[in-house]
Amino acid sequence: MIHKYIERILRARVYDVASETPLDFAPGLTRRFDNSVYIKREDLQPVFSFKLRGAYNKIVSLDDAAKRAGVIAASAGNHAQGVALSAQRLGIRAVIVMPCTTPAIKVRAVQNFGAETVLFGDSYDEAYEHAMNLAEEQKLSFVHPYDDPEVIAGQGTIGMEILRQHTGDIHAIFIPVGGGGLIAGVATYVKFVRPDIKIIGVEPDDADCLNRALKAKRRVILRQVGLFADGVAVRQIGKEPFHVAHQYVDDVVTVDTDEICAAIKDIFDDTRSVAEPAGALGVAGLKKYASMTGVRDQCLIAIESGANINFDRLRHVAERAQVGEHQEMLLAVTIPEKPGSFLEFCRVLGRRSITEFNYRYFDDNAAHIFAGVAIANGSRDSEELIAQLREHGFTVTNMTGNELAVEHIRYMVGGHAPRLLDETVYSFEFPERPGALLKFLSFMGGRWNISLFHYRNHGAAFGRVLMGIQVPKTERRAFKEFLDAIGFAYREETDNPAYRLFAGGNATS
Fold first, then answer.
1. pLDDT tens, 185-215?
2. Angle at the Cα of 74 (from 52 to 15), degrees rounded to 5?
3. DSSP letter at 365?
4. What is the DSSP letter of 411?
5. What are the pLDDT digits (tens) for 217-239?
6. Distance CA 400, CA 324 (A)
């Protein structure tokens, strides 16, 4: 297998349209981790992503009849632009099927390259099925984003460039993983030329399809995936990439949303470029690997795979980056509702900076405070502060890793419901499109009353909603059937301490 791919990579015609991107030294990351850190800048491609390489290599390899008929792809992002620009350069027709949730800026970007756009469905899977149907009806060649040997070979040229640009020792290369085309191509070439170099995949911890497949020794389908790093939100690793990855990938590191946001900030600090969440995965994984293993005085390389990020998502990234860098912790603290309690709380904090403070009177006995506190030494400082607060008689819950607290409760703190409610609380992921909420409410049909609602727009294809609904115990089964039928991703949060302490109608002080 490896010789087949090496030949394809060496013959790949990506440079008709793609650029050889620089391998930039990252001085800030180098100093912090005592390793020589480099970033492969695929964000500098004409479409701000590596996807152009594989798309062009696939399309240019088609025979003349297939080129005359045209190509089709299903994508909401980087692959769509790669196919569109490749087809434009070759003068052939391109049809791109995109979910209806695709932001208008991405639709316009594809249209600006001369491609026809078709909006269909709320998810990639629905767009993919429609694209396959159109391909058959119109005799178009389907350009898969990752599960195709020519696409994999095109992405493999990145590995070829890295080894040409850095001829010295390399300890490891960190590669973002979605469907697996990028890591398959790079791993094949690097392991053929320099088998001593570690190939480490990086995935979000809520979309780790390669990680789970390698552990199971077979491809698995994730029930649902997180959407923050939408460029790698893939439920199953590609068939062809998995054949390659299980032979040549040494390890997989998973990272959370806060660690991704911190990596976006690190990339900006060192290069003054703004990576998209999926594009920053390599740096996030590099940082985590260096911290976990203690590796020192080695060369570590991360691929920055793309920079197609909506401007209005930057607010969300900035909010989460401090937590990802372990420079801020979120605490729920219960203090006596009496004069001097807040002063005592502040005295325990000492000279630590308060980044956020939320409080509202509830009753005469106790008060629940939601506080953000700047910390200097990560988990060690966090543990010391919590211990000090408890020594002074305060009840403390660490909310730093509580997604409900970070996404919703910190913006909602204002008091509990005024009376006991038969309330069930769920978090949902709604497609960010007109009519999505109306669809949900219409399906519910006024059967249950909404008692709590919170939503913030993060500039992503899916919005996150927190909803409290009054559901009598006798109707819980019917309500669960409703949730399964509506088709939106959901999770029950009724017992989440963030909700109980700050918003629950049944909470006790």
1. 999 999 999 999 999 999 999 999 999 999 9
2. 10
3. S
4. G
5. 999 999 888 878 888 989 999 99
6. 10
pLDDT tens by residue, 20-39 = 999 999 999 999 999 999 99
Mean predicted confidence (pLDDT) in 119-146 = 92
Closest residue by Cα to residue 49 from 101, 25, 84, 88: 84
Question: Would you state the pLDDT for residue 269?
Answer: 95
Q: Are 377 and 434 in contact (CB under 8 A)?
A: no
The full set of domains in the chain, from first to last, is: 2-45+149-322 (3.40.50.1100), 51-142 (3.40.50.1100), 326-401 (3.30.70.260), 415-502 (3.40.1020.10)
**Looking at the annotation, which residues are catalytic?**
51, 305
Q: What distance in Å separates the CA atoms of residue 142 and residue 155, rounded to the nearest whole number?
A: 18
Please report the pLDDT score of residue 433 as a whole number. Answer: 63
Residue 141 pairs in a beta bridge with 71
Structure tokens of 30? 């180098």
Q: What is the pairing mode between strands 116-119 and 198-204?
A: unpaired
Tell me, rounded to whole angstroms, the distance of Cα 337 from its chain centroid: 41
Q: Which strand (E) or helix (H) includes residue 24? A: strand 23-25
- Beta bridge partners, 336, equal 366
Supply the pTM of this predicted model.
0.76
pLDDT value at residue 310 = 79
Nearest Cα to 392, choosing from 433, 336, 448, 446? 336
Distance CA 117, CA 261 (A): 31
> 305 with 182: CB under 8 angstroms?
yes
| Coil/strand/helix, residue 350 | coil
Phi–psi pair at 225, nearest 5 degrees: -125, 150
- The amino acid at residue 388 is Q
